[in-house]
Design goal:
Elements lengths: L1 H32 L11 E5 L5 H10 L6 H10 L9 E5 L5 H8 L6 E5 L6 H10 L5 H10 L26 E5 L4 H16 L3 H6 L4 H14 L6 H14 L6 H10 L36 H8 L8 E6 L4 E5 L2 H12 L6 H21 L1
Antiparallel strand pairs: 1-2, 3-4, 5-6
Helix pairs in contact: 2-3, 5-6, 9-10, 9-12, 10-12
Amino acid sequence: MKTLKKWLIILPILLILSVGATIALRYVFNLDLSKSHASQDNHTKMVVIPEGSSTRDIAEILVVEGIIDDAFKFRLFSKLNEYDGKFLAGEYPLAPTMSTSEIADMLCLGLTEQTSFTIPEGYTINQIADTLYNQGLIDKDIFLDLTVNGDYSEYSFLEGAVEGEHHLEGYLFPETYTIPVGADEDMIIRMMLDQFQSVYSQYEKRADELNMTTNEVISMASLIEKEAILDGDRALVSSVIHNRLKEGMPLQIDATIHYALELIGMNRQYLTYDDLEVDSPYNTYKIEGLPPGPIASPGEACIKAALYPENTEFIYYVLVDDSEAAMAFSTNYEDFMTDVEHWASTIPEGAEEADQQAWEEAQQAQEGGDEG
């Protein structure tokens, strides 16, 4: 009887201890799995860890910078996973979307040396990859593979983006970036996506007012980026695109033809009528509405222009002066054709043929290299 009473006392205690241990284990386990909600601003920022900082100091810095929301959890995670004493001074690209282990691993790298790169507005992913590769910052094949197969699903603005090899086209924001020497391809892509998110978040409300998806806004902005050269023409080009969409007219934008040709290895300065027949979902001479996705990375000015077009009745435009990048806008086909004839008269005689010959020679050279 005494033994039974003893067990009646011990069993509840063991049960309580078991539940407590389970809760504790879940807490410790979730220290790494859970991601911080410390800040509404989820973009990557450079966080400085001074020389001689303790784990406690680092945890407080991360809270102040909005990277984590609980200094105690970070300290406990560091203690249990033997990170204490391994953190190094440096300047690190960190974001609230990173897990605790990702942050801790980064802080062990000792990133102190930095470099920078600039991506101009209107660059395609291939041009971005070439720029980074030429500066010795990436392995081009790895970078391009990540733009297709990398997991960037945490970026909600990509939900409506085209799938496949053009998934990130238009969303790697053109800007000057400072990165740690040794930053890998994934880190660079994330910094550019974070910058896009930071900029575009200011325009989401306006996009909703126009009933436009993010993909539609960035697709239109990319067309404006490639078509309008002068700042004052952006909102006018935007008005033409909006007006043609309202009228159900094909956009017939040459920049989409250039993009479609580039995708099959053809680079043109001057388009031919045959080029306008290229079989591509980006050929706005054939498809209705906007292309399936952006054709380049637009800057903020063109994103703004897409959302705030000038109030006009223009449905045509053409470049009339290459030297001054001047454009002419018109409301009727007759005036448009007059402008086109003026532009055509400025093209050097034989330029289109020379363009075609240059492409054919480039193809022959490439084929010869492939055979070798």
